[in-house]
Amino acid sequence: MIYCTQCGAEFDGNFCPKCGTRSSAVPPPSASSAGHAGIPGTWASALCYIVPIIGPIVFLASPPYKLDPEVRFNAYQAFYLQIWYIAIQIVSGIIPHLPAFFDRILGVSYIVLVIFLAVKAFQSERIVLPVVGRSAEKHK
Prior knowledge:
Elements: E1 2-3, E2 10-11, E3 35-36, E4 39-40, H1 41-50, H2 54-61, H3 63-66, H4 69-94, H5 100-122, H6 132-137
Antiparallel strand pairs: 1-2, 3-4
Helix pairs in contact: 1-2, 1-4, 1-5, 2-4, 4-5
């Protein structure tokens, strides 16, 4: 089996059945061996959660990682989670008379969740969050 360098589809033969790109015999990526500049896929997955917005975009754009399904999943889930957090922060700032502890609880909960997801991604365990995780799974 080989992976398409354009769309990441797995196939046998000379041409990708999904996008039609000519095969260049790229071996399947693995979470432990895929890397750019010495960064394994598990580290890339964890960094997607730790480096907000930019981390997921960088790993989705770089060729060794955009073909790795685990890195792609974690990058999309981290990106969606970070966008949701920013949106909730904006809405909570607009609502008048919202207790100040709500903002602190939200911030601490977000940090704990990000650390938990980063550790699980580093351990190659897939944690699918209810809304953002399902959206991330659609980007295979």
